[in-house]
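Have a think about this chain, C-alpha cells included, and walk me through the fold.
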Amino acid sequence: MNRTLSLWFVFIALILAGCAGDEKSWHGKDISGLMPELQFQLEGTDGKTVTPDDSQGNIRLVYFGFTSCPDVCPTTLTDLRRSVQQLPEEYQDDVTTLFVSVDPRRDTPERLASYVSFFGEGIVGLTAEEPTLRKLAKRYRTTFGYDQPDANGNYNVSHSSAVYVFDRNGSARLLLRPGLSSEQISEDLAQLARESKS
C-alpha cells in the first residue's frame, strides 16, 4: 500500500515538474520584474508632449539613439521594421517603436520627423532636454555620452544598442541585443502579442 502511494506521489511530481518546465523561451533576454514599468514624458515630432498613454495597449519597443548615427541606429530601426512586417497581420498594428533621441541639440522635432518617417509607420520620434533624457536613461540602467566636436562642429554620441520591449500593460519584458535576426525578434514579438491578447 505504501509502495503504491509512493509511486503515485512520484507520478504526480513528474507531471507537475513537466508543467513547471513549460516556460516560454525567448530569443531576447527576459527582464520581467527587473526593470521599472514604461514611464516617460517626452517631446514628439509635432512639439507636443508624449507619454506612454499615447500608445497604451500596444507593445512598445524603446530604443535610445540619434539621427546622425552612422550605422547602428539605422540598422536597428530597419531590423525592427522588418520584424514587425514579419508578424501575423493581426499583430502588426499592435507594435509601436519609440525612438528616443539622446542628441536634442541637433535632433529638432522636424529632423526627427523626417528621420523616423524613412523607416515607415509605427515609429515615433521622441526627445527632451538633456537632464530629462539622463533621468530616463538611468531609469532603464543605461547611459549616453558626447564626443568632442571636430573642426566643423560634428560629434558622435555613444549610446546603448539594446532595445527594451514593454508589453501592452507597460511592463518591461525583454531586452533585445545586437545579433538577433529580424526573424528571431519577430518570433518574440508574436509570442508576446499572443500572450497579452489571451
Observations:
- Helices lie at 2-20, 72-85, 109-117, 130-139, 182-197.
